[in-house]
């Protein structure tokens, strides 16, 4: 059955307008973007197939062109539109964090980091540089490595923090394994960075491990 044949209250667009965007499921949101389905499948059916195949919205956004376009109904045009939506979402979150104290919206930081790091296949280490009001000055990817290891150099982190005149920093790195669990090496590195930055009066507010849509906060676990 085509979506146009559904009861009006169940159609994604009408539901969004009447009940609000937050009431829609991931499949319904994706269906609005897709607009149409394929032979034998509505846009919602196609959206559900994509979520099943790629695991999540982040998984769809992170899928390479050659994989996504193998799905019937998804071509290069849809791929480029998805990438544009993904990047706009990430930039919008970053803009919000630049104008207010990010400690007042910890979930927003998590959402941003999941968008930025959640589906990378290599491990990367990023630093969010903050001003005295805990607003983001900029975010930099400092180091990247293999699937399982990244080398972080303390002096470079300190140098960049001083360059940005940062009053505080938040660290984040991803675990491509999909497990948001700190290692002894992660804890040691965090303490070394904290001590090095303390010498120049720069606070370490948190260190997040990102695995897909899951995050672990060192601060919340008493690891700072």
What does this structure look like?
Strands 2-1-3-4-5 form a five-stranded mixed sheet, with helices on both faces. α2 crosses α3 and α8 (154-163) crosses α9 (184-198). By secondary structure, it is α+β, with helices and mostly antiparallel strands. The chain contains nine helices and five strands, in the order αααααααββαβαββ. The chain has helices at residues 12-19, 26-34, 43-54, 57-62, 65-68, 76-97, 106-117, 154-163, 184-198; strands at 124-130, 136-144, 168-174, 203-211, 214-217.
In spatial order, strands of the major sheet run: 2-1-3-4-5
Q: How much of the sequence is in beta strands?
A: 15-25%
Q: Helices and strands: which structural class?
A: alpha+beta
Number of helices: 9
Which stretches of 5+ consecutive residues score pLDDT under 50? none
Radius of gyration: 20 Å
Question: Any idea what the shape is?
Answer: elongated
Strand count, sense and closure of the main sheet?
Answer: 5 strands, mixed
> Roughly what percent helix?
40-55%
Number of extended strands: 5
Mean pLDDT: 85
Order of helices and strands: HHHHHHHEEHEHEE
Distance between the termini: 55 Å
């Amino acid at each position: 059955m085509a979506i146009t044949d559904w009861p009006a209250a169940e159609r994604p667009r009408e539901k969004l307008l009447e009940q609000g965007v937050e009431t829609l499921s991931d499949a319904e949101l994706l269906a609005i973007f897709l607009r149409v389905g394929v032979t034998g499948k509505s846009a919602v059916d196609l959206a559900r197939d994509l979520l099943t195949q790629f695991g999540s919205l982040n998984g769809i956004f992170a899928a390479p062109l050659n994989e996504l376009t193998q799905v019937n109904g998804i071509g290069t045009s849809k791929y480029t539109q998805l990438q544009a939506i993904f990047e706009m979402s990430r930039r919008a979150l970053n803009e919000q964090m630049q104008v207010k104290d990010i400690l007042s919206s910890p979930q927003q930081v998590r959402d941003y980091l999941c968008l930025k790091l959640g589906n990378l296949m290599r491990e990367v280490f990023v630093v969010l540089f903050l001003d005295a009001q805990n607003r983001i000055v900029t975010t930099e990817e400092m180091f990247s490595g293999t699937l399982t290891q990244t080398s972080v150099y303390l002096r470079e982190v300190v140098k960049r923090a001083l360059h940005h005149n940062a009053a505080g920093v938040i660290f984040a790195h991803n675990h491509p394994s999909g497990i948001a669990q700190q290692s002894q090496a992660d804890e040691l590195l965090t303490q070394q960075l904290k001590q090095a930055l303390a010498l120049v009066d720069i606070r370490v507010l948190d260190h997040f491990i990102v695995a897909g849509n899951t995050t672990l906060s060192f601060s919340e676990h008493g690891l700072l």
